[in-house]
Amino acid sequence: MEFQRTAQLNVPFAEAVTRTREALGAHGFGILTEIDMQATLLAKRGTQIEPYVILGACNPALAEGALAADPRIGVLLPCSVVVRATGPDRSEIHVFDPDLIPAVTGNQALTEYADDAGTRIAEALHDLGS
């Protein structure tokens, strides 16, 4: 089962992060958190990995509606967006597929919010590929 959506970019990591932030912002998502996994694993485990960042993206209107439909949805918020280097001038973006939310939670009342989020994310990923 695919649980994520992906875009591949032929740009360096730092540019991919900037472009991802901009594409998400253009579709109503703000970035609430940023976790630098490369720095964290190096500091805490002494492990070296390629550049890898997890952005916590949130659309406040969708989050508000989803929380009203099911307060437990907070465990899936904010939406995790991974930007990772796959080469010197190549990066990948991975986003949890919101279409899975109704099935994962068993709450069909979340479908409209998942559909809206899925459309916005698909558009943002499309913009990144353009």
Fold topology:
Blueprint: E1 4-9, H1 13-26, E2 30-36, H2 37-45, E3 52-58, H3 60-69, E4 79-87, E5 90-96, H4 101-105, H5 111-129
Largest sheet: 5 strands, antiparallel
Q: How many separate helices?
A: 5
Would you identify the regions where 5 or more consecutive residues have pLDDT less than 50? none
By secondary-structure content and strand pairing, the structural class works out as alpha+beta
Query: What is the residue-mean pLDDT, rounded to a whole number?
Result: 96
- Helix amount: 40-55%
General shape:
globular
- CA-atom Rg in angstroms: 15 Å
Q: Element order, helices and strands?
A: EHEHEHEEHH
| Total E-strand runs | 5
Q: What strand line-up does the widest sheet have?
A: 1-5-4-3-2
Query: Terminal Cα separation, in Å?
Result: 27 Å
Strand content: 25-35%
Gist of the model:
The protein is an alpha+beta fold.
